[in-house]
Write a structure and sequence with these properties.
Rossmann fold; three-stranded antiparallel sheet
């Protein structure tokens, strides 16, 4: 590879919603469209007012199609709210906001699922219709649901996060259905492909967005066996979450909210860890875990930040790939 061209690089990205979608957008500008596969968390999916809703998949679709609301990072930017206004007037549940155009997407997904389509097929169809340039796959066609154990009882993720505004104290998390769910076959094939350049764990919540994916039997093993370097980008900067309740959940689980804690959480699954410049003092501690470290700006405010971080991640992966290949060759030759 020369310069910062990644035309022939291939990557699999594991992503949740808003934070992950930002890096995925950057990767989509750095890699060719056929060389990026995004594995989306579906642990947040739920049924609401008769509709099948996939918040993380939809956030990725809207981000990659240019339809996302730039103020919130979720939902559409050209939204109207007649559905919610009428639903509220009729006494319906109004704690989860559904814009009119968003409802149309959920209605079409629900219609296709009821007609016997798999979630992967449905996602591909919707992405094609909205001109999404890269492939997004659900972690599984089978239902896996994130349940949060709290001091107010066990809650489905959206009821904890949206209805209760992440207020109850978190005591634990479990992924209902993960033990019997089948991982997405295309994702497994990409992870096993020797041409793969990087496995990217996006700066999504490790406990609520990435762990659900890894909980599906086969994914953690496939990541561990991939020849490509596995790079995780910290969602924690300066002891605080860039987006969402990650730091709050970590404190309630008795964990220090720091990038180092996240690196420890991923452990031997990753080869490299991307720290924000503000956390450069943690670099040596991460290296002592046996992980390579890249220090750069990880806060993605605009498109330039997203593309810049994506370039850093891919360059880091190529550097680590060279080291891993050299180590394997020395091992093969019985040297070192």
């Amino acid at each position: 590879m020369s310069g910062d061209s990644f035309a022939d690089s291939r990557a699999v990205a594991f992503s949740g919603g808003v934070g992950g979608a930002k890096l995925v957008l950057g990767l989509s500008r750095v890699l060719s469209s056929e060389n990026l596969l995004v594995v989306a968390n579906t642990g947040d999916d739920f049924e609401h007012v008769g509709l099948h809703i996939c918040p993380d998949i939809d956030t990725l679709i809207y981000a990659l199609s240019g339809l996302a609301n730039p103020e919130t990072g979720w939902g559409r930017g050209d939204e109207t709210w007649g559905f919610m206004d009428t639903l509220r007037r009729l006494g319906g549940e109004d704690w989860f906001l559904l814009g009119d155009r968003d409802v149309a997407l959920h209605a079409r997904r629900t219609e296709l699922l009821k007609a016997g389509w798999g979630l992967d097929e449905v996602t591909r169809e919707i992405a094609r219709r909205l001109d999404v340039p890269v492939r997004i796959v659900p972690m599984s066609d089978d239902p896996v649901r994130t349940h949060v154990r709290t001091d107010a009882g066990e809650l489905e993720f959206q009821r904890y996060f949206v209805r209760e505004k992440a207020g109850p104290r978190v005591l634990g998390v479990r992924f209902v259905g993960a033990e019997s769910a089948r991982p997405n076959g295309d994702a497994l094939a990409w992870l096993a492909d020797p041409r793969l350049s990087a496995v990217v764990i996006c700066p999504s919540n490790p406990y609520l967005s990435i762990d659900p994916i890894l909980s599906v039997a086969g994914f953690r093993e496939a990541v561990g066996e991939a020849r490509a370097p596995v790079i995780a980008v910290s969602p924690i900067v300066g002891g605080a979450a860039v987006k969402g309740p990650t730091a709050k959940i970590m404190r309630e689980l008795g964990l220090e909210p720091s990038a180092l804690t996240v690196a420890r959480h991923y452990g031997g699954l990753i080869d490299g860890f991307v720290l924000d410049e503000r956390d450069s003092a943690l670099a040596q501690a991460v290296r002592e875990l046996g992980r390579a470290v890249r220090i750069c700006n990880t806060v993605m405010r605009g498109v330039d930040d997203k593309v810049g971080l994506a370039r850093q991640v891919m360059a880091f992966a190529h550097e680590i790939r060279g080291l891993l290949d050299a180590r394997r060759e020395r091992t093969r030759r019985g040297v070192g």
